[in-house]
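Hi U.,

Before I forget, here's the chain from the pilot set. I'm dumping it here mostly so it's searchable later in email.
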Amino acid sequence: MKNVSFSGGGRETKGAVDAEHLVDGKYSIKDLVDINRLRTLFEDFSKTTGFTTGFLSYPGLEILIATGWRDACTKYHRACPASMEACKESNIYLTHCLKNLKELSIKPCGNGLVDGATPVIIRGKHLACVSTGQVLLEPPDWAYFEMQAIKYGYDVKLYLAAIKELPVVTEKQLKQALRYLGNLTAFIAEEGLNALYVRMSAELIREENKRRKKSEQALRKSEARYQALVEQAPDGLFVIDSQGGRFGFIDVNSATCQMFGYSREELLRLSISDVVMTEETLRASSEMTIAKSGESVFTQWQLLRKDGSVFFGEVRAREISEGRIQGFIRDITECKRLEREVLEIGGHEVRRIGQELHDDICQWLAGTSMLAAALAKDLAKESPANAPRAQEIEDYTKHTLEALRRVTHGLVPAVFDEGLVGALRELAANVEEILNIRCRCEFRYEVRVRDQNTILHLYRIAQEAISNAVRHGGAKEVTLLLLPNKDRFSMMIRDDGCGISQPLPQTSGMGLRTMRYRAGSIGATLEICPGAKGGTEVVCTIPLKPEECPLNGLA
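Structure:
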């Protein structure tokens, strides 16, 4: 990002930062966060939501990441020394709030925009701050911005065009974005700190193993040090017995006990199948079998506490010796909630845009069509030679109106009252008409999904899968299938495109990540694999509630 600055910013070295702003007296934010990885996440966030992001070290305020910054700021406000003074005043105010560890600070700048910032606190240390903004909380006052352009010597037309590009959001949305960015950054920093602890622990273990041959006393000291580090680790750590296929716990740390609500003695009498949701038992056992083979496993499970409550756990596991698998568990329930909030914000904006297109633009086009029809009628009497032109205007307007209605129907589906089958059939019809490909439905059974939210997520998964098949796979034919299997069913989207590489890349696109999140939010699993006869198959499998069984055959 060029031509951006933050008051007081500059490059900082670790030696220039006192221990007050270092975790354990030695780790700065750059030690804990993979800046390139976080930049990718922030860029995706900016593209998805339209919000800008800024990530700065503290107290040096070195700009580490800046994404989505608007032309109104970079080309005008911050490029002009006079208007830059207003930017500096806003920065000074936000910086003062950050020093006081204010959770969220929002400040309208002197140039008419609104910015906000929030501190990143890790283990009680203020290591960084996250900012977003360059937005408006109400529609722009064009007279104000025109006067401002004249005042600072901007090109009025280009400057007002840049102002027009600014998103108009509510204060609640701005706070949600700030809170999400701050929590996401803190989560990744905590993960980085844990990785440092784990590497430090592993290094100690390796050193002690070298000394094992020298004396049993050195070995006992090594084990004592390792146990102390494990007990101090904020994430849950477990060791399971992989022999016999039971996968029973043979060691756990205090964090694991606190996470599940069991005592250590109680957990050591349980196995993996006792602490995962019933529908995930088979998958969890399969993944532990993979870890037993020597591969590292990184997965997410829905886990059960002693009191019956459910939480989402991020699990990393691998075999550490023959018959023993070591794993780490992190409670990511809050992260899942934040992901859901971002998805809901995006869905709300899509529905709002679709509704505005329907209620405003469509009505204007309908009125234009009626006027054109009336004009054609008048011309047929008074100027027959010009009547066909008026008829053409009416025809073009009708075609445009129908196309816009199809688009708004995809943004705001209105067929969910007809159930999942009706929604998917309507989707297939729209796909054939809009994308000009063949989209078949093979539904031999009626699936009585009653939850509208579940139908919406399945609809969006199918919609995204079809879009990917056409855009990336060049598919000419797509088939939608519903496949029953006792107390669950699978929705399959099969295409005849060029297929997908295996295994899928870890840094998959926003569409695939959104599909996986939608599936997880309704308790479903998502598999993406090459088709048996070419192309790609996307399979979403979801448990059925008792009242949704049995499946009824369709005629």
